[in-house]
Structure formats: structure tokens, C-alpha cells
Amino acid sequence: MGNLNLITIIIIAANVIISYKGFDDYAFFEKYKFNVGAIKRGEQFRVFSSGFLHVNPQHLLFNMITLYFFAWLVIARVGETKFIIIYLASLIAGSLLSLVFNKNNYHYSAVGASGAVMGIIYSAILFDPWMEINFIIPGWVFGIGYLLYSIYGMKKQIGNIGHDAHFGGAVGGYVTTLIVAPWLLKTDLTMVLVLAIPIVVLFVMQKLGKI
Fold first, then answer.
1. Measured distance CA(21)–CA(28) in Å, rounded
2. Using CA atoms, how far apart are residues 51 and 37, in angstroms rounded to an integer?
3. pLDDT above 90: percentage of residues in the chain
4. How far apart are CA 74 and CA 59, in angstroms?
5. What local confidence, expressed as pLDDT, does residue 107 receive?
6. 188-210: b or e for each residue (b if 16 or more CB lie within 10 Å)?
7. With contact defined as beta carbons under 8 Å apart, do 39 and 106 qualify?
8. Which uninterrupted H or E stretch holds 110?
9. pTM flag (> 0.90)
């Protein structure tokens, strides 16, 4: 069960304030959203700023509730400073993978904290692979299953969902967690390797031109 830490409150507040500004101010939303063409023209700040904008209150609520349920575990294991590093690294990694997979689509746009939140989820799963998600699914099963679904979604372009940002965020969370908590490589190497499977699958498929 989640609980509210000060840093979690600050991140949620930042998302709420910036998102609501975007809901009411179209020019603000357009200026700071993720857009491939604008980023290639030099507006790299969008890689970061887009992670604090959301399409509507429902989108915002879903991401913030999800963050609430997983942030506490990561903070408990590595502290607030390293949690912030994981969160921001995941946010940026999600945007960068979106940029890689949509580099030729100058009109591609996206917003949302989903990449950052997915990074925190994957980090939490690394720390507690057997946590129960939805009261029944082991965390490691959910993590692998979700990323494999994200690969399928990227390949088939399913729905108006940033599957690549979700996947990139998970990769960012995975790598950054192992950097700030290297003891996981000694205490639970098997699960660390298992959770790397969908990441390896994606990059092999990309290398082979299958996605």
C-alpha cells in the first residue's frame, strides 16, 4: 500500500499545477509538449517539460495514483535523492526512446508522466519482484508482461498510447536503479536478468528491423 512522502507530494503537485495550466492555456500546452519536429529544431527542453503535461484530468489522475502506489517502496530502499534521479532519468529515457522510434515523423506529439511512472514501477519491481499487483499478479510477471505488450503495441501502433515512452521509461528505471543500487546484482541477479528479457527482445527486434 502506498503512502505519501514529501518528495512524492512535490512531484504530484508539480504535475497537477503544470497540467492544469496546460488544460486552460492551449499556447502553453503546445509550447511544452513533446513534438519531434520542434525538438529537432532545437527545442530539447520538450523532452523534459512534456513529462509534466497531461491530456486531461483523467490522464493526470491515473498517472499520479499509480505513482502514489509505487513511489514509497523505491524511496524506502534508496532514499529521496536517488528516487528523484530514477524518476527524472526514466522521464527523459521515455522521451528519448519516443524520439528514436518516431524520428521521421515530425508531427508526432505526446505528453504525460507515464514514462517516469513506468520507470518507478520497474524500479519497485527490481526491489520487490514478488510484490502483488492487482492483489494477484507477481510484480516480475506484470513487468515482463507489460513490456512485451508495449513491444506489441509499438509494432502494431495500438491505440493513442505512447508505448515507446512507457518502454523507454522502464528501461530508464531499470538501468538507473542498478546504478544507484548495485547490490541488487549480488542479492538477486537471477531476477535482474529475468527483468532484462523484454529489453533485450526490443533491441534485438529493432536491430533486425522488425519494429
1. 7
2. 17
3. 84
4. 23
5. 92
6. beebbeebeebbebbeeeeeeee
7. no
8. strand 109-110
9. yes
**Gap between the Cα atoms of 2 and 206, Å rounded:** 36
Cα separation of the two ends of the chain:
37
Q: What is the pLDDT of residues 137-157, one digit of tens each?
A: 999 999 999 999 999 888 877
Closest to 180 (Cα-Cα) out of 118, 121, 123, 115: 123
The number of CA neighbours under 13 Å toward the Cβ of 67 is 29
- What's the CA gap between 30 and 37, in Å, rounded? 12
Torsion, Cα 39 148 190 74, to 10 degrees, reads 50
C-alpha–C-alpha distance, residues 195 and 149, integer Å: 14
**Identity of the amino acid at 37:** G
- CB contact at 8 A, 32 and 49: yes
Give the whole-angstrom CA distance, residue 121 versus residue 174. Answer: 9
CB-based burial, 124-148: b 16+ in 10 Å, e otherwise: bbbbbbeeebeeeeebbebbbebbe
CB 125 within 8 A of CB 79: no
Contacts of 86 (CB under 8 A, 6+ apart): 74, 78, 119, 120, 123, 172, 173, 176, 177, 180
